[in-house]
Amino acid sequence: MTFARTLLPAVLSLALAGVPAALPDTAGHTAAAADLPYDGQARHETALFSVKATNNAAAQEFTVDGTRISRVSVWLGSGAATGTVTAEVRRDRTDPGSAVASATLDLAALGGAGAGWVEFPLDAAVTAGATYYLFLQARTAESGPIAWYGTVRSVPGSLTGWNYDQAYWGGWHAAASRPAFHVDPADSERCGETEPCYVPASALAARTSGLLANGVVTEAVLPSFAVGASYVDGSNVLRLPSGRWRYLPAGASASTVVPADDPGALAQVEESRAWLAAGLVPGATAAQRTASERALLSMRALLKPNGAFAAAWAPPWEYSWPRDGAFAAVAFAASGHDEEAYRILRHDAHTQRADGTWEARTLLDGSGPPDARKWQLDGNGWVPWATWQWYLAAPPDGRDDRLRALYPMVREAADFAARSLGPDGLPPASPDYWELDTATTNIGTAAPLLAGLNSAADLAARSGMGADAERWGDAARRLSAGIAASFAPLGYPRTVDGEHGRDSAVAFMAPPFNSAPAGLGEALDSTYRALLLPGGGVSPGNDPSFSWGTYAWTASTSFFALAWAGTGEQARASRVLDWVLSKRNGLGELPETVNGAGLPSAVAPLGWTDSLVVLTALALQGSARPTPPTWRTPPTPGTAP
To answer: Which residues partner with 4 through β-bridges?
Structure first.
């Protein structure tokens, strides 16, 4: 009986979006003439046959022109998470004793419920030109369906597909439809190249799983093509399940699949490794160093030639946020990649608005915002802080000249921040990293502005701009007093009115942003406990008027790791960082969020989390970034300091 009902939840079919279900009639080895072997067809738009034992199975006639079969593949969809699937090459479809080869795969080992091409390794001696049957049957105790997909369209030169349904047909029945299969798939017929290997439903919580890049163009690795793949060490070249490589050649706009050790791909690998070696890959443990290496490579892939830093590589994230770019610039600078850090800061100077502020986000070409999203004041703190961090990490030779090119940007940003402070010393309400408005001042804006004003004052003093240093230092003192008077007594909640719960931005009051004030340790502890989720990780906040659901945010969780690393609680920081690293996906990428089932979700990688992991790893190995000093008026010449 044709298996016409919907096989899997909608999420599975959506997750294979972008993967062609219906290929041209010439796909695979489909024969165009009777004298050619029929050893495969690639169409799989329809769930054709249930293959659940004992009532159901299916078979496909085929011929070959060789004398040995080493593998076969079928397009399988399973609503069951456990059980087995067996493929056999038989001389007689009805006789198990006629099998010349058999292979059984475990559904749980494949990842559970899912869909895609499944390859069965075999070792079968066959006769060229003879007819054989690819027999498929699954066994499971679950009620979920398991089906062999294929096409109901005509396939020229094809042989008969067979459906075994004891209840409906009373046994075997010749079908007009044709299952999707390959005998000895090679090159583009191998799963993971033009079409995905079997994709577990659990792999589909994220929109992206990795990145390919060539310095100009970036391309996302979709979850459906990440299964069974891995990066070639030290690069963004992807090793496919077939053993071949996928990469973005120099000057190309799309990736290509090449043999392993292709000269162009090898050149990209060597260039990438040389870039890593020119800097520092931080970490106190092997796991931290591995994660830092991948984070740095992903940050590099997200950085455009003009200095725009994309938050991630999926449409809603393919913009440049000043906040994300600031963290990336600091991580690049701290790990010895000065050019990348400075490029981001120059882009900030280019995209700064006339009043000294920044849009919430801009198009990657720097031409302006993609929409009417309200601008966010915290950028006026993050960018000067990042500039200060870059300056301290930059090679001394020529850095003062380079700072002079950035100084007008710092001046405009710091002046606006200083002017924004009210009589209470606090800035006005503004959207922050939540990208939601608040009715009163939030800590996610106040703390970055404090870091930025102190950073700007120190840069001014180093540049001989005494009046600027005085002005911004005074503003920083007023802001610090305002935070101490209004936020500190409440434990640094999200908003100054105390009505919007806790906020992971409490960590912005700690190094390497600000010198930790008295009582911050208790506020960090209580906030972390309040935001901690059952599966580990934290939500950004617990505002009663807004729910983050059951998703843990890797950036917010990393805030605490970085804060504890900067306040002397290395063991605690390591434990939190270990949790973040445990949520990397199969390619080693750090996701934006982790869902309630503990799976990477949203997008991977997220550049902000990458930056935070690099900075935390640096701190844990004893190379913590400095904290902007609380600026004080220098002594009058000739007087005692």
So the answer is: none
Q: Is the Cβ–Cβ distance between 444 and 503 less than 8 Å?
A: yes
Token readout for 340 is 């990348």
Q: How far apart are CA 370 and CA 282, in angstroms?
A: 35
Strand 230-231: give its sheet, edge to edge: 230-231, 238-239, 245-247, 256-258
* 61, two tokens: 């006639």
- Express each pLDDT in 350-409 by its tens digit: 999 999 999 999 999 999 999 999 999 999 999 999 999 999 999 999 999 999 999 999
Residue 561 corresponds to which amino acid?
A
Using DSSP, state whether 381 is helix, strand or coil.
helix
* d(C-alpha 56, C-alpha 544), whole Å: 53
- Counting every residue written for the chain, the total comes to 641
CA–CA gap between residue 557 and residue 593 (Å, rounded): 10
**By the 8 A CB rule, do 161 and 175 touch?**
yes
Let me know: does 389 contact 403? Beta carbons within 8 Å. no
Q: Are 57 and 92 in contact (CB under 8 A)?
A: no
Instruction: Report the interhelical angle of 322-334 vs 607-620 (nearest 10°).
Output: 30
C-alpha distances (whole Å) from 583 to each of 291, 294, 577 are 11, 14, 10
Helical residues (DSSP H) of 534-632, grouped into ranges: 554-566, 570-582, 607-620
**Per-residue pLDDT reduced to its tens digit, 77-107:** 999 999 999 999 999 999 999 999 999 999 9
Residue recorded with tokens 């162009």? 264
Other C-beta atoms lying within 10 Å of the C-beta of residue 525: 15
